[in-house]
Amino acid sequence: MTAVPKSRILGTGHYTPARVVSNFDLEKVVDTSDAWIAERTGIRRRHYAADDEVTSDMAAAAGRQALEAAGLNVADLDMIIVGTISGDTPMPACAVHVQQKLGADGIPAFDISAACAGFVYGITIADQFIATGAATCVLIIGVELLSRLMNWQDRTTCVLFGDGAGAVVLGPAKGDGRGILSTRIFTDGSLAGALQIPGGGSNEPLTAEGLERKRNKVHMSGSEVFKVAIKNLTSASTLALKAAGLTSKELDWVVAHQANLRIITQVSDRLGFPLEKFILNIEEYGNTSSASIPIALDEGVRDGRIQPGQSVLLCALGAGISWGAAIVRM
Ligand code: UT7
Question: Which helix (DSSP H) or strand (DSSP E) does residue 212 occupy?
């Protein structure tokens, strides 16, 4: 039996910065090639924030667009959740700056630190608040400004990531079957070292030597994450489908985290769901971590591929290792 949703998506939006950096541009600063990046990842370009742009600027722009799509005002919101690991400041939360920029004074605003899974974690939490009646209109934003967290001496990682923001507004379901049918989130802390920013916290306060060794930048064991990603994205998606009371045959679209086209292709094979029905934008934006799902979702909605009433699987995995999946009837 199909699950009965408690919350539904009222509007979507996204923002990507104007500065486009191609693989050919990176060839000039890193020992890499367009051929390697495109073949191994599917990425051809990524967008980088302007020097005077900060994370909350991108988040607020995406949030405003989602509110507009929902036909709502900032005053209608009663909560802001931001999935990010690259906020404006280590403290306070990025959501605080977003709240101030939107003029949403007084409502709770907080970050979720679940890296690339941050958006799926965010809608999972918002869905629970709405299901219990504790909130009626929640803005969930996935945003990252990762170009400032790259180690330009680490070619395996620095070519992968980009900047951007995506957002959805969630409100109560109307009883017509549309909404969040299921969510499933997971973490395996034994793999915390596979993808991390090792310096800058209580474990390794930053020193001049740490800065020299780029300990404040993203460090990733790519092949380790690669294998786990295929396995866990497939299992979480299968569990979310089961909880929603659907099979993959009944899905219309999949919006998977855009980390590597080879990962997405293998997940497509394992789920038995055709790659043509995945909303892909990795070629244009690279890996935008928590922003990748809401950006792709909004693109699919705006260009008319994703239609009202269609069923969409969202799935993501990133540092933690944290991962999750959700089924949404749009
Ligand atoms: O979003 C959070 C989750 N993250 C992910 O899901 C990322 C998962 N991992 C991956 O997508 C892939 O593991 C990477 C794209 C990061 C790396 O691809 P890979 O096929 O696993 O490459 P590798 O690290 O095993 O390196 C293969 C070769 C090496 O050369 P040798 O030792 O075989 O001679 C690397 O030095 O490719 C070389 N290489 C590069 N060559 C040109 C690594 N990076 C580059 C580069 N340009 N940028």
Answer: helix 208-212
The answer to whether residue 94 is catalytic is no
- Centre of ligand 1 from the C-alpha of residue 146, in Å: 18
Radius of gyration of the chain (CA): 19
pTM of the model: 0.97
pLDDT confidence of residue 160: 98
Taking alpha carbons only, the member of 227, 274, 267, 257 closest to residue 323 is 257
Between the alpha carbon of residue 298 and those of residues 85, 93, 305, 320, the distances in Å are 21, 24, 10, 26
Cα(221) to centroid of ligand 1, in Å? 9
Share of the chain above pLDDT 70, in %: 100
User: What would be the CATH architecture of the domain defined by 7-175?
Assistant: 3-Layer(aba) Sandwich (3.40)
Angle at 251 between CA 245 and CA 253, to 5 degrees: 140
Indicate if 47 belongs to the active site: no
Set 158, 232, 257, 260: catalytic member: 257
Pocket residue to mutate for ligand 1, from 144, 156, 218, 263, most atoms within 8 A of Cβ: 156
- Which CATH architecture best describes the domain 180-329? 3-Layer(aba) Sandwich (3.40)
Longest dimension (CA), the chain: 59
Q: How far is CA 92 from the centre of its chain?
A: 21
Catalytic residue among 14, 23, 116, 232: 116
| Cα–ligand 1 centroid distance for 195 (angstroms) | 14
pLDDT in tens, 153-202: 999 999 999 999 999 999 999 999 999 999 999 999 999 999 999 999 99
- Residue ranges of domains in the chain: 7-175, 180-329
**Token digits of residue 298:** 């909004």
Half-sphere exposure of 24 (CA within 13 A, CB side): 1
The reply to whether 180-329 shares the fold of 7-175 is yes
